[in-house]
């Protein structure tokens, strides 16, 4: 009977996790983070609601693994390229753009200071017992809420977006480390110096992973049923979690460190997507549903101190982020400053972690732990809404993409004239020594911007890396490789580079950089002409080619292709949806955000673009 109850409870939790995003979608409540909704659903089926879930070993183990995996993915989520100094001389309202890392560091330092002052005041009022612990709770910021919100608002790559992102990353790193140090100091027999062993082990594992990841032997084990990279990541996670517990630290610190190491090793995009799918599709929802299940709101509000504490802490959370955000007023308007403060108030994962740990080591009681979790849920609901209400989004965004081409030759010079001027704004850069340009090309027909040389410093000086698409085609493979890698480290996500060397080409492809080779492209085209001449004809016809059109018209969302009012002579040859490649048929439904690969006359393609854009 006990086993039956155990399985029943687990099934209830899994079903609750399954239906939660469906309910959000149907009710159009996309403004609420899914993890917050999972906690609310847990409240409904748990102690605060119908109380139909009974704790058992299965749920406890899966929930713990979900917690560990959440901290692991928090580490993986950190993009360390944001810490690189950005010296681009952008102008904004006649003023130089601030150094993102420097300003973010000041803001986060002030967040810690204000959080400490608020915690000290709460201790004087007799509402909290430990100032340091409460400082960590108040200063946390949720990357899991900040990153999706910035992406949705399309401000991730802007100056203010980078500042907000770096503040959130610093908060994630620093508060996690300080929490581990606090636990080590607080627990009997704890030794902070042992944490150095954990970090030393992390450094050794990082260099070991860096040494082995590109070895041909391991690459041969990355396909089929072996998937050696995925096995290595899970082995790394469990080794550091086990080592963390053995050294008297929290297991989540080991999990977080494992995620950081994976992020530093720049895993393939497919691997990260698999990890996200496994974590957010299975383990992590169980953890958040169980957080809600274990919360007893009715018992919580029987304590008058808690009723007073929650609004005070909410005000404290807002003050700890809004006051430091005033630093941004030097460069931005009031709406931008207030909006930044609101989104930085979003906090969830680390507050839940701190509440669980604080309760275990006796710093707070069960009531206070529940109050902190409820506070995090409230903050995660209201602050993204306030951010979207206040932040001054640009109502009209330029639809033209900036394309900067490095290196003028027979391939790149015609490109500047052949790209659609309505879709792309193209700039071509070459060294001022005109003799370096192919002699066969009439340079007078093209506008080329002269730079002193192709050094990274000269390119940054000329703001070349600040672009939507970067095309690199100098006459030196090593130089092209160096420029492409540097551009990716600066955050450019659409890079096209010319590499003739197979070895260098393979390395860049592993970093998801688009590579083309004159020799191999020509050979592939000749092969296509022999094997599939009609397919090759699409690429060689002057008037027609393959064009990508993004579907942004919600009037045609989930409309079948056969019901489209106009296609002309345009043919849709492929549809890309997220990571899915779809061969279209008449009954294929086009969805918002799809990327359609089409061919046809210029007129038909332009009409289709106007209709779907």
TrEMBL record:
Keywords of the record: Antiport, Ion transport, Membrane, Transmembrane, Transmembrane helix, Transport
One Pfam family in the UniProt entry: Na_H_Exchanger
Keyword RNA-binding belongs to the record: no
Record flagged with keyword Transmembrane helix: yes
Ranges where the RCK C-terminal domain occurs: 533-613
Subcellular localization, as worded in the UniProt entry: Membrane
Membrane topology: Multi-pass membrane protein
Top-rank lineage group of the source organism: Bacteria
Listed transmembrane segments: 6-24, 29-46, 58-80, 101-119, 131-150, 162-185, 191-209, 247-266, 278-301, 307-328, 337-355, 367-387
Family named by the database record: Belongs to the monovalent cation:proton antiporter 2 (CPA2) transporter (TC 2.A.37) family.
PANTHER family, per the entry: NA(+)_H(+) ANTIPORTER YJBQ-RELATED, NAPA-TYPE SODIUM/HYDROGEN ANTIPORTER
Protein name (Swiss-Prot/TrEMBL): Monovalent cation:proton antiporter family protein
Organism whose genome encodes this protein: Salinibacillus aidingensis
Lineage: Bacteria, Bacillati, Bacillota, Bacilli, Bacillales
């Amino acid at each position: 009977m006990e086993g039956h109850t155990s399985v029943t409870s687990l099934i209830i939790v899994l079903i609750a996790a399954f239906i939660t995003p469906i309910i959000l979608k149907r009710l159009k409540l996309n403004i609420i983070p899914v993890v917050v909704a999972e906690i609310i659903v847990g409240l409904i089926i748990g102690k605060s609601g119908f109380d139909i879930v009974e704790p058992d070993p299965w749920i406890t183990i899966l929930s713990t693994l979900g917690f560990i995996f959440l901290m692991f993915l928090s580490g993986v989520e950190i993009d360390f390229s944001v810490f690189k100094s950005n010296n681009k001389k952008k102008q904004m309202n006649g003023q130089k753009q601030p150094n993102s890392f420097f300003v973010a560091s000041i803001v986060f330092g002030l967040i810690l200071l204000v959080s400490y002052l608020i915690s000290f005041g709460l201790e004087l009022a007799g509402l909290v017992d430990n100032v340091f612990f409460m400082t960590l709770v108040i200063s946390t910021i949720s990357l899991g809420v900040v990153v999706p919100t910035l992406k949705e608002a399309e401000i991730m790559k802007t100056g203010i977006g980078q500042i907000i992102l770096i503040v959130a990353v610093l908060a994630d790193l620093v508060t996690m480390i300080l929490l581990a140090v606090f636990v080590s100091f607080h627990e009997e027999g704890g030794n902070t110096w042992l944490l150095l062993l954990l970090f030393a082990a992390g450094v050794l594992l990082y260099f070991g992973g860096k040494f082995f990841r590109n070895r041909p032997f391991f690459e041969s084990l990355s396909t089929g049923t072996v998937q050696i990279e995925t096995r290595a990541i899970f082995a790394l996670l469990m080794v550091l979690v086990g080592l963390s517990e053995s050294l008297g630290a929290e297991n989540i610190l080991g999990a977080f460190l494992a995620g950081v190491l994976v992020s530093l090793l720049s895993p393939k995009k497919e691997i990260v997507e698999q990890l996200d799918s496994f974590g957010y599709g299975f383990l992590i929802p169980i953890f958040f549903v169980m957080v809600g299940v274990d919360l007893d709101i009715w018992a919580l509000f029987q304590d008058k101190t808690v009723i007073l504490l929650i609004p005070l802490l909410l005000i404290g959370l807002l003050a700890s982020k809004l006051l430091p955000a005033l630093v941004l007023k030097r460069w931005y308007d009031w709406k931008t400053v207030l909006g930044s403060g609101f989104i930085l108030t979003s906090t969830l994962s680390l507050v839940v972690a701190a509440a669980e740990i604080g309760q275990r080591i006796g710093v707070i009681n069960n009531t206070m732990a529940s109050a902190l979790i409820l506070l995090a849920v409230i903050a995660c609901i209201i602050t993204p809404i306030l951010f979207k209400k206040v932040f001054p989004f640009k109502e009209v965004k330029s639809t033209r993409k900036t394309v900067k081409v490095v290196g003028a030759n027979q391939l790149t010079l015609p490109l500047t004239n052949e790209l659609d001027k309505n879709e792309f704004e193209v700039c071509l850069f070459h060294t001022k020594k005109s003799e370096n340009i192919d002699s066969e090309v009439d340079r007078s027909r093209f506008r080329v911007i002269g730079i002193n040389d192709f050094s990274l410093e000269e390119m940054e000086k000329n703001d070349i890396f600040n672009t939507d698409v970067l095309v690199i085609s100098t006459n030196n493979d090593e130089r092209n490789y160096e420029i492409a890698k540097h551009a990716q480290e600066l955050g450019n996500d659409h890079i096209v580079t010319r590499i003739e060397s197979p070895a260098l080409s393979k390395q860049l492809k592993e970093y998801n950089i688009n590579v083309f080779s004159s020799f191999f492209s020509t050979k592939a085209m000749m092969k296509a002409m022999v094997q599939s001449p009609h397919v090759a004809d699409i690429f060689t016809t002057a008037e027609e080619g393959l064009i990508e059109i993004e579907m942004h018209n919600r009037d045609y969302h989930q409309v079948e292709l056969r019901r489209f009012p106009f296609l002309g002579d345009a043919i849709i040859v492929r549809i890309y949806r997220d990571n899915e490649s779809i061969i279209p048929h008449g009954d294929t439904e086009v969805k918002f955000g799809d990327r359609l690969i089409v061919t046809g006359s210029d007129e038909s393609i332009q009409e289709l673009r106007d209709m779907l854009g």
